[in-house]
Design a protein that fits this description.
The structure holds three protein chains of three kinds.
Chain A (H helix, E strand, L loop, with lengths): L2 H12 L19 H11 L2 E8 H9 L5 E4 L14 E5 L2 E3 L4 E5 L14 E7 L3 E2 L2 H6 L8 E5 L4 E2 L7 E2 L6 E9 L2
Parallel strand pairs in A: 1-11, 2-3, 3-6, 4-7, 6-11
Antiparallel strand pairs in A: 4-5, 5-8, 9-10
Chain B lengths: L2 E3 L3 H6 L1 H13 L4 E2 L9 H5 L3 H14 L5 E4 L2 H10 L10 E4 H8 L12 E5 L2 H6 L17 H5 L5 E2 L15 H4 L1 H17 L4 E4 L2 H14 L4 E4 H8 L1
Helix pairs in contact in B: 2-12, 10-11
Chain C lengths: L5 H11 L5 H17 L5 H17 L1 H14 L3 E5 L2 H14 L4 E4 L3 H5 L2 H7 L3 E4 L2 H8 L16 H12 L8 H18 L2 E4 L3 E3 L4 E6 L3 H8 L2 E7 L3 E2 L2 H16 L6 E5 L7 E7 L3 H5 L15 H5 L1 H6 L10 H11 L16 H5 L6 H14 L5 H14 L2 H17 L6 H7 L12 H13 L1
Parallel strand pairs in C: 1-10, 2-3, 2-4, 4-7, 5-8, 7-10
Antiparallel strand pairs in C: 5-6, 6-9
Helix pairs in contact in C: 2-12, 3-12, 9-10, 16-18
Classes of the chains: A alpha/beta, B alpha/beta, C alpha/beta.
């Protein structure tokens, strides 16, 4: 017998009687200004929100960023750079108000390690793709269609030395979320 | 209504004043109270150490002694928690209902009239079995509306000043036989609780459980920090 | 392996460690952060209850979900392996690394691989392992084991770490700046990350519906490692399963908040498929879990999502330190998992608790931890493996306390004896009086007073 068969056999023999899945209750709460609340949450964890009118305006702003900037926003941007960038700019799928996380479909990037390199990470998210909590957010995702996807909430951080918070443990030390109004 | 006074073994032997005060408060509140002389212990020390059969012998004796009462009332959240939740007394209709003293008073009577002043800074120690076992108050881990069965009693004591604490409901470290099996940890925990109370200026520490107090007082006397200890029943009896 | 003796190890930590308050301070800090965060989550208690039920549902259908998970992951191009125990897991991981002639492995935090001693196994076979979580790196460099599952170097002070980094990475002597030290570790590991050919992580949740492994970290080390290296390996305990992607929404809302008071960890990654041109392996590890599942009174301990909240809240853990438990997962949850693995080695741990119940109230998946601690004591006593120092007084106590006349006799003797010989050398009194005074003995018991003053008046 293979280990697989032995393990599954033991589980079948030992498992308790089936207990029902409770379903996911409605955990929503009364309205709040989502962008505003997201901004407060993100600032608490060391990040920053910016508002831009349109995607076009966001792209123009990105072009004006100084230093070694790599961006993977439109298909022409898919060029890789050998050096670690100062600023990395990518698209996000959605944002979550309760925890200031943005979901990034990393399949859209040329390499999976892109969001973890560089000093400063900027994620562009469409303003109406913001959801109250994770239950709503997962409702708008289909992991079956994604090879690697990730929630990112704020800069890379650690407090492993005497509970003192240090940003930029292995990933970026700064994080910005830019909300734009529409795709134009 | 026939009320049996249950006096936990260590209160009987070491803290008779707590039992006297409990009796007085119950009588003052108009209850007909009797102390059955053959009682001993609830069986908790054995059961909490894993000796369930040994504990059952003791709790069976308890059942037998109190079988003719409607209510059994005792000044200990810990022992009462054991009797209700582990020994299962009261599950059966014919068995008496077991109550912690202040729960019984708050359900069957009014807060006693207290007229004498107690102008001291006092810290309240909520025993874990009263708090998280009997749920007589809201525990700090849970997100719930604050509630406390003893608050009306605490609020009624004239001129008392309750001090705030850093950790409102951390264990004192007694834990029954834990206090001797894990003596060093137990004492360390006790010191930490005392430090919390003392750093907030408490002259007295009050609790509904003499077992926690026996431990805390033991640590306190060893380190000679001068804190005084009273069971809540003793304090209320003083100011009635 | 030697029997763990918690009381002795804890006493040693309290009296002889360099900084016996380190664990208390750090763990209390995390518990407070947790409280401040969860109080603002509407429906927190309902969320805990939901999580508990989802886990019980999953565990009671675990075979089905593991098969679904395997099917889905395999369809996604992932290679799924099954390991009955730690040794088989180590062999599988070594096999993969050996096949690729990998000189070293970058590894992010995984308590499962700690449990199975993977590092030792690989290093003996010539493969270097670099732990990349800062806390784990610290304990690796100092040749210790984690003292906490979320904050592995919780027992170490800044001074300890500064000295360690000076010795191992040539950082400036005496520099205590946490940022300086953290960035030194970052720099030290950077080159390892960039050239890694294989990376390994633990797993927080496996999703049956999508074949996902979900990993929660704050540093980004797991993702940097996995995504730089062509070969990625994820070692996962069987109990990490959840049925659907939507279930993650419940657990990710609970995990970070309970662990460190964060609404969510910085990174919550979802791996479904290998990277283009890369390899992805998932090793499903039993190592006692399927046996644990069959223990009627104890199987719900497998609901645990390893947040560490029960450690942070536990006053015994904070006093005695994480190492006093002698196991990878310390604290209250460790004390109910370990006897399920080996009752003879860990029979002492269920007694290392005052049964205050704080662990059960703080647990995000509502494991009745202190209830199980108590139940384990009963099982251990029934097994007859409990120490005589515990069993003799209990058996005598039971005899005395179930017979009123014996109780009265013993009580009167105890009060007299304690009055005359406060330093009575019985082991229990000795243990009591080491840090405490005995209660002052009153003239008479309540019972005697009652007979004299009350009983007469009544009749």
């Amino acid at each position: 017998m293979t280990s697989r068969e032995i393990i599954l056999g033991k589980i079948r023999k030992n498992k308790p009687d089936s207990i029902e899945h409770p379903g996911i209750p409605d955990f929503s709460w009364p309205g709040e200004d989502p962008i505003d609340r997201f901004g407060v949450k993100l600032s608490q964890i060391g990040g920053e929100v910016q508002l831009v009118e349109s995607y076009t305006e966001a792209l123009q702003k990105v072009d004006k960023l100084e230093g070694n900037v790599v961006k993977y926003l439109v298909s022409e941007d898919r060029v890789l750079n050998d050096e670690e960038p100062e600023t990395t700019v990518i698209n996000g799928e959605l944002a979550v108000v309760e925890n200031a996380a943005v979901f990034v479909n990393v399949d859209r990037l040329p390499e999976r390690f892109v969001p973890f390199l560089g000093e400063r990470l900027i994620v562009l998210v469409q303003k109406d793709k913001i959801y109250k909590h994770l239950h709503e957010a997962y409702d708008h995702l289909d992991l079956n269609q994604i090879g690697f996807g990730i929630y990112i909430a704020g800069p890379s951080a650690t407090a492993d030395i005497a509970q003192i918070l240090v940003r930029g443990a292995h990933g970026p030390s700064k994080m910005e979320v830019w909300f734009y109004n529409d795709r134009k | 209504m026939k009320v049996g006074l249950f006096v936990p073994c260590y209160i009987d032997q070491f803290y008779p004043n707590v039992a006297k005060a409990s009796l007085k408060i119950l009588e003052r509140s108009g209850f007909d109270v009797e102390f059955p002389l053959d009682q001993s212990c609830c069986g908790q020390p054995m059961v909490n150490s894993g000796f369930v059969k040994e504990g059952e012998k003791v709790s069976n004796h308890f059942k037998n002694v109190f079988k003719d009462f409607d209510y059994v009332v005792g000044p200990s959240g810990s022992c009462v928690h054991h009797l209700i939740h582990h020994a299962g007394i009261g599950e059966n209709e014919e068995e008496p209902k077991v109550f912690e003293l202040f729960t019984f008073l708050s359900e069957h009577s009014d807060v006693p009239v207290m007229t004498k002043s107690f102008p001291h800074k006092v810290g309240f120690h909520f025993s874990c079995h009263a708090l998280r076992g009997l749920r007589l108050g809201s525990s700090s881990e849970l997100v719930e509306e604050p509630h406390s069965i003893v608050k009306p009693f605490l609020d009624a004591i004239p001129d008392i000043e309750w001090v705030p604490l850093e950790n409102v409901d951390e264990c004192c470290g007694f834990g029954g036989t834990f206090s001797v099996f894990e003596s060093d940890v137990s004492v360390d925990m006790g010191r930490r609780r005392l430090e919390d109370h003392q750093s907030h200026g408490a002259e007295y520490i009050i609790s509904m459980d003499s077992s926690c107090l026996m431990h805390l007082e033991g640590v306190s006397r060893k380190q000679k920090d001068g804190i005084k200890f009273l069971h809540l029943a003793e304090l209320i009896e003083k100011v009635m | 392996m030697a029997r763990v003796k918690h009381a002795k190890a804890a006493a040693n930590y309290i009296h002889h460690s360099k900084n016996p308050k380190a664990q208390h301070n750090a763990a209390s800090h995390l518990r407070k952060k947790r409280d401040r965060e969860v109080i603002n989550v509407p429906g927190w208690e309902h969320l805990r209850e939901t999580a508990s039920q989802i886990k019980m549902h999953t565990l009671s259908n675990l075979d089905k979900y593991l098969e679904e998970f395997e099917r889905k992951a395999t369809q996604n191009g992932v290679k799924v392996h099954w390991a009955q125990d730690g040794n088989e897991m180590n062999e599988i991981v070594y096999g993969i690394l050996d096949q690729h002639q990998v000189p070293y492995l970058v590894k992010s935090k995984s308590m499962l691989t700690e449990e199975c001693h993977l590092n030792d196994y690989l290093e003996k076979r010539g493969i270097d392992v670099f732990d990349t979580d800062l806390g784990e790196r610290i304990v690796q460099l100092s040749k210790e084991t984690p003292s906490h599952i979320v904050v592995p170097a919780m027992h170490k002070t800044r001074e300890d770490i500064s000295e360690l980094f000076h010795d191992t990475m040539k950082t400036e002597k005496g520099n205590l700046d946490a940022k300086y030290l953290t960035l030194a570790a970052r720099k030290d590991l950077r080159e390892k990350f960039m050239n890694a050919r294989a990376a390994l992580t633990g797993v927080n949740f496996g999703v049956a519906e999508t074949g996902t492994v979900t990993i929660a970290t704050n540093e980004g080390n797991a993702d940097l490692g996995v995504n730089k290296a062509p070969v990625q390996i994820h070692c996962m305990g069987l109990e990490k399963m959840v049925p659907r992607q939507m279930d993650l929404s419940v657990f990710l809302r609970l995990l970070g908040r309970s662990a460190t008071g964060q609404s969510i960890t910085t990174y919550s990654s979802h791996y479904q498929r290998p990277k283009p041109g890369g390899e992805m392996h998932i090793v499903l590890v039993d190592n006692g879990r399927s046996k644990h599942l069959g223990m009627e009174d104890f199987w719900t301990a497998l609901k645990c999502i390893r947040c560490g909240a029960c450690m942070n809240t536990c006053p015994v853990y904070r006093s005695g330190g994480g190492h006093s438990y002698g196991y990878t997962v310390p604290g209250p949850i460790g004390s109910i998992i370990t006897p399920a693995r080996d009752i003879n080695q860990y029979d002492d741990l269920p007694f290392a608790s005052s049964l205050c119940g704080s662990c059960s109230d703080v647990c995000p998946v509502k494991i009745d931890i202190h209830g199980q601690l108590l139940k384990w004591r009963e099982v251990i006593v029934d097994h007859g493996i409990v120490d005589k120092s515990k069993s003799i007084p209990m058996k005598m106590g039971s005899k005395v306390l179930s017979k009123p006349s014996w109780y009265r006799f013993a009580g009167s003797i105890a009060r007299k004896v304690m009055k005359q010989f406060p330093g009575l050398v019985s082991s229990m009194v000795k243990d009591w009086t080491r840090g405490r005074e005995l209660p002052e003995v009153p003239k008479e018991s309540f019972r005697s007073w009652y007979i004299k003053n009350k009983k007469k008046n009544d009749k």
